[in-house]
Amino acid sequence: MRSTLLAALPALILPAITSAYSGDMTYYTPGLGSCGIVSNPQEMVVALSIPMMGNGANPNANPKCGSYIGIWNPVTKTKHEAKIVDTCFACHYTDIDVSPALFKAVAPNGDGRVHGIDWGGPKVGGGKPWEKPSQKSSHKPAQKPTTKPGAKHGEL
């Protein structure tokens, strides 16, 4: 019994360490975000939902501010990193709002909302695959996503 439990332990722990969230991705024009960080549309930045951010009395002191998440497009098989700088007031729990440059990099053919984008990070959950990028650019060239049969305009 004990050996069976020990053998199953990695399978029970691993998903919790490496799993990410999945939700819709939209874009917005960044400026002065809830983290007190000024960003522009060309930067790779992201806003998380209100419950995901969990801002206290002073959102500038939020430990998530300035940390990074990885964003994975399962259609294009590309990963991109983004800095958390803001709170998205219209996002559902696992949705993200990104800068126009990041939106174009992750979903070059998206028209404003892309469903099923996976993401995570050490400060929000997701483990090592989503850690802060190195000084070298880790952005992969965007590949043309394919459209699922029966998808509405803009859906991947």
Major pleated sheet = 6 strands, mixed, barrel
The separation of the N and C termini measures 46 Å
How much of the sequence is in beta strands? Answer: 25-35%
Overall pLDDT, averaged? 78
Helix content: 10-25%
Helix count from the secondary structure assignment: 3
Q: In angstroms, what is the radius of gyration? A: 17 Å
Account of the 3D structure:
The chain is α/β, with parallel strands linked by helices and 156 residues long. It is built from three helices and six strands. The protein has helices spanning 2-18, 50-53, 100-106, and strands at 21-27, 45-49, 68-73, 78-88, 96-98, 113-120. The chain has a six-stranded mixed β-barrel with strand order 1-5-2-4-3-6. The N and C termini lie far apart (46 Å).
Summarize the structure.
By secondary structure, the chain is an alpha/beta fold. It is built from three helices and six strands; from the N terminus they run αββαβββαβ.
Summarize the SSE layout with pairings.
Elements: H1 2-18, E1 21-27, E2 45-49, H2 50-53, E3 68-73, E4 78-88, E5 96-98, H3 100-106, E6 113-120
Parallel strand pairs: 1-5, 2-4
Antiparallel strand pairs: 1-6, 2-5, 3-4, 3-6
